[in-house]
Amino acid sequence: MASAVSEKLADYFECAVCMEQFKEPKVLPCLHTYCKMCLQELLKEQGSDYVINCPECRQEAKIAHGDVAKLQPNFWVNNFMTLLRMQDKDTTKPFPCENCDSEDEAVSRCNDCRVFMCDFCVTAHKRFRATRGHQMLSIAEVQKLGSKALSKPSFCVKHTGETLKLFCETCEETICRDCTIVDHREHKYNFVADVAEREREVLHILLNKAKGKEVVVANGLETVYAMKELVQSRVSEVNNEVDEFFDEQVKALEYQRANLKREVMTEGKVRVDQLEKQSRVLSSFLAQLKSGVEFTSQALDDGDNVQLLTMKNQLSQRLTQLSSTKIDCKPCQNEYFKLCVRQTIWRNMKDLATVFFIINPQMFSVSIVGGEEGVMYRTLVGQTVSLVVTNKDREERGEYHVAASVAMTGEDEESLPTFGNNNGSHSFYFCPTSKGTVTLSVTVDGQPVGGSPFQWEVYPVLPICDEPKPKQVLPGGFQAMYGSRPYERGTTHGNCFKDGRYCWTLRVGDFASYHRRFEIGVTTGIKCKGGIQTWSLSVNGDRFQRVIRSDRVLSKGMSIEHDDVFTVFLNLETETLSIYHDRSQTTEVFKGVKGPLRAITTGVDIF
User: Fold this and answer.
1) In Å, what is the CA distance from 85 to each residue of 33, 92, 94, 101, 116?
2) What is the pLDDT of residue 82?
3) Which of 169, 211, 218, 215 is nearest to 189 (CA)?
4) What pTM was computed for the model?
5) Cα angle 125, 130, 131; round to 5
6) For all residues of the chain together, what is the average pLDDT?
């Protein structure tokens, strides 16, 4: 082409499959564009469906009835390719008239009819009464205005000659005037221009969200690249340390040095490979984000209202899909390893030195058993709190030492014994004997885990009974909570929980004295539409003593026995209620739990 810009643009509008300029460009749901014929060749039959795997992002697209022609055309690519053709001064074939079959060179374009015309058609156009008032643009003016001047009118496929001027909001499709009489009678519809303005705002919101995700992923990719370099650099540094150490030793140590270097290289390769794999995933997803953002931006900038609305759903679905995709942008590996020299006797030469892979303490979480990960709840005096330290890095190897200590308000710090579990986690227990603030410190190999030290409040044990009583306010801010049988739910005994996080432990009492009644959970205690709102587990006379959720779903793995222990976790910040059954080690979770609430404690005792 004549100019470098034109050549660059021409390359940009090449199909990634045939490596030629687009011919009838069609858009896949992932917003990547290919020639219609290229897509036809990529079409595969998969059972009763027809699918195309995008060559760029590998996302699978289902093609209805295998008809590639029904895919949306890339209108702005078509427009820009027309502009390129007009700017191509080296071409031997002039830009032809679109109004007649003469193939004469076009000299103007009617802005109303939106077609290019030769000199003869322009003259005729200006003579006809119906068209002589139309605005005619010269080729130079069209080039100056850009792709927006090349948009073409969209006609209804059902009603010949009728333009798509309306948008049916019931069916979410563009329609013509005749469509409102036949297929869309009594539907809600509006003018394209009015709906397009609103939908542009929606797409702008989705676009901004996708752009934000693009920045996050791009930053994450840079972090992964940086971490990969750190790991590679650390591999080199550790290898140098190994060399410096073993160069001072006798030749008898050479075999051990080779083993250690191999271990370093293996670990480095594992981490680099994992980071490389993660970088490929992030690169691919970043490319999808860039493609989706760029495509939608072009559609918003260059598309007319009809074309925009025609692709609205596809654009919205793709941007929503990209923005909602969960992807880990933090490096999946770290550079935490170094040479650890052991000053042992020469006869233990094989253990003289080893590569020590440092544990990353930030990859550990501390949770109350049965509760949400990493969340601390307000607890009760005299109730044992079971905690677990979990390594979130499933691929982390090696042994590590976990230590825990706790201090109550005004008391000295005391160490808590920890116990290793078979799954790599560690457990420990703490039973507060007085109210106040708990400060818990947890370390791994002497380094504090993420979030340590943890703090929560301990409140007095709450009294409980099975009959309605006046509301009481207890020291520490709690209000008394009472048991309630199902037929008493219309009575409010006082709201205990309005905000924050709480947990309490309950033991199943004598079933016979409660007439085989059992229910634990929380309730609003007030009437609303549909009655009182309750989130609970119950056994209502079932001889198998099976547990049923308040939403009438049978609990899996739970049944009631005398002296069974349950722990109730209420998190009003995340609107979550979790009820943990100690014997079966299963948890039932309720979402959308909103206060103020009081506890339901039928057939159980607080201990």
Assistant:
1) 19, 11, 9, 19, 13
2) 66
3) 169
4) 0.46
5) 30
6) 80
